């Protein structure tokens, strides 16, 4: 029996990939271990969206040199978006690495482990985690066709490839039998789901199909692109009972010229009109966004347009990042990174301070109200879970709530989370894992 450790950084897509690779290794009679340095198989699942993430992976991979020296039989693998056109460079820099795998391309590692273990994997079975979380991720579309000028994803994850509805429904049914209550349908751009499939279904069709899986209580989807979020999709989210009223709708910037330079394909007014349409269809919707500050050429007044948009929309959360040029992207080739680091930090701090106040106000208004919370786990004696609009709630009470949907009265609020007391648990037994 061999042990494995998969270290993951970056987006939920990477988390889902790691879970699936873990499922494959378990079928090869390997077991997970929390101690990376002691594992027989060490996989680093990498991210290149920001320089900081890439540096962190490089640091970890470098530190595994001594592990490989002490235990040469250890398999060291690098997976994910760092593995791309520069693999030869990586091979030269990290010669102690046995396998380099692009996202979702586990084949080389699987074959190596099969040879070492003397067993073969049945590739006809879907790869799903053997011990999935109550709320788990299901990749529905890989890659991205958008080529936003700042983004490396289309170069590393390739063009869009949707998975057929029937395959996804089967996977969700299997997850439900293993105790999963909530699935998040994942993709870089889930709203373009299906255009490459024979009958060209869309995300609304898929949501409808997954909504019909009996033991699943909640369905989410991540991430959306404002250009592809059709009225049909908005209507489906509003209409379908299990689909939660939560949308992450990255705006990236609030100024039309910056949006055009990013090649996002929409204007500020079009974005705001879409937000209005979503809020009319779902008045209590949870809305989050992504923003990049300090994009090449962004002036102070253009940044103020972003501040203004965030102030107007009043998002529940803003994922913000300072622009960092990613080699190989259009922006890296054509646009000088001309906003100073100091200026980027100041813009980031200003946006963060404003958004913290907005989130504080939004969450404070929830004190005294009651919400349905799906309990996902327990930490330091407190249960935690999420409301349908995706608010993180810590729940007091010693009862065993894991996997249950609980009515919770909110008693305290901070900009980042809520706290409450359980009023009653729905009578949902925890299914036995099979
Ligand atoms: S939509 Fe744009 S930002 Fe999102 S993954 Fe695709 S290219 Fe990157």
Secondary structure topology:
Blueprint: E1 2-8, H1 12-27, E2 30-32, E3 41-46, H2 51-70, E4 75-80, H3 87-93, E5 99-101, H4 107-117, E6 135-139, E7 141-142, H5 153-157, E8 161-162, H6 165-177, E9 182-186, H7 203-211, E10 218-222, H8 231-239, E11 246-248, H9 256-262, H10 268-281, E12 286-293, H11 300-313, E13 317-322, H12 330-334, H13 341-364, E14 370-379, E15 382-386, E16 392-396, E17 405-413, E18 418-425
The structure holds iron/sulfur cluster.
Main features:
alpha/beta, pyruvate-formate lyase- activating enzyme, 3 domains, five-stranded parallel β-sheet, five-stranded mixed beta barrel, binds iron/sulfur cluster
Description:
- The chain is α/β, with parallel strands linked by helices and 434 residues long.
- The chain folds into three domains: 116 residues, Methylthiotransferase, N-terminal domain (Rossmann fold, 3-Layer(aba) Sandwich), CATH 3.40.50.12160; 229 residues, tm_1862 like domain (pyruvate-formate lyase- activating enzyme, Alpha-Beta Horseshoe), CATH 3.80.30.20; 56 residues, Beta Barrel (OB fold (Dihydrolipoamide Acetyltransferase, E2P)), CATH 2.40.50.140.
- Helices cover 35% and strands 23% of the residues.
- The strands form five sheets. Strands 2-1-3-4-5 form a five-stranded parallel beta sheet, with helices on both faces. Strands 14-15-16-18-17 form a five-stranded mixed barrel. A three-stranded parallel beta sheet has the order 6-9-10.
- Helix 6 runs parallel beside helix 7.
- The longest helix is centred in the last third of the chain and has 24 residues.
- It starts with a strand and ends in a 9-residue tail after the last strand.
- The C terminus is likely disordered.
- Bound molecules: iron/sulfur cluster.
- Iron/sulfur cluster binds next to helix 5.
């Amino acid at each position: 029996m061999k042990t494995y450790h998969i270290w993951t950084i970056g987006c939920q897509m990477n988390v889902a990939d790691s879970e699936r690779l873990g499922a494959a290794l378990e079928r090869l009679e390997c077991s997970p271990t929390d101690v990376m340095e002691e594992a027989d198989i060490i996989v680093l699942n990498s991210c290149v969206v920001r320089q900081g993430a890439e540096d962190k992976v490089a640091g970890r991979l470098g530190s595994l040199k001594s592990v490989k020296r002490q235990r040469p039989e250890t398999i060291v693998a690098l997976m994910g978006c760092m593995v791309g056109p520069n693999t030869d460079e990586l091979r030269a820099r990290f010669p102690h690495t046995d396998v380099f795998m692009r996202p979702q391309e586990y084949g080389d590692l699987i074959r190596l482990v099969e040879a070492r273990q003397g067993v073969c994997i049945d590739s006809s079975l879907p790869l799903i985690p053997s011990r999935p979380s109550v709320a788990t991720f299901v990749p529905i579309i890989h890659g991205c066709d958008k080529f936003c000028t700042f983004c490396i994803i289309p170069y590393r994850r390739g063009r869009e490839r949707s998975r057929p509805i029937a395959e996804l429904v089967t996977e969700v049914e299997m997850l439900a039998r293993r105790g999963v209550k909530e699935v998040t349908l994942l993709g870089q751009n889930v709203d373009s789901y299906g255009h490459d499939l024979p009958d060209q279904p869309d995300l609304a069709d898929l949501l409808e199909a997954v909504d019909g899986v009996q033991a699943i209580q909640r369905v989410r989807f991540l991430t959306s692109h404002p250009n592809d979020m059709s009225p049909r999709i908005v209507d489906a989210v509003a209409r379908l009972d299990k689909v939660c009223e939560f949308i992450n709708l990255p705006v990236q910037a609030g100024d039309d010229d910056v949006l055009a330079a990013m090649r996002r394909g929409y204007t500020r007014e079009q974005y705001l009109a879409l937000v209005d349409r979503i809020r009319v269809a779902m008045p209590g919707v949870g809305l989050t966004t992504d923003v990049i500050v300090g994009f090449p050429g962004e002036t102070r007044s253009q940044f103020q347009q972003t501040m203004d948009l965030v102030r107007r929309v009043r998002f529940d959360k803003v994922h913000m990042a300072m622009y960092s040029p990613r080699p190989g992207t259009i922006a890296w080739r054509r646009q000088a990174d001309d906003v100073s680091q100091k200026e980027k930090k100041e813009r980031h701090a200003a946006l963060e301070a404003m958004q913290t106040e907005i989130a504080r106000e939004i969450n404070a208004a929830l004190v005294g109200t009651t919400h349905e919370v799906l309990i996902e786990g327990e930490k330091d004696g407190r249960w935690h879970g999420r409301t349908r609009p995706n608010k993180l709630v810590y729940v007091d009470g010693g009862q065993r709530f894991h996997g249950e949907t609980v009515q919770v009265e909110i008693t305290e609020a901070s900009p980042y989370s809520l706290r409450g007391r359980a009023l009653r648990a729905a009578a949902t037994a925890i299914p036995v894992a099979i």
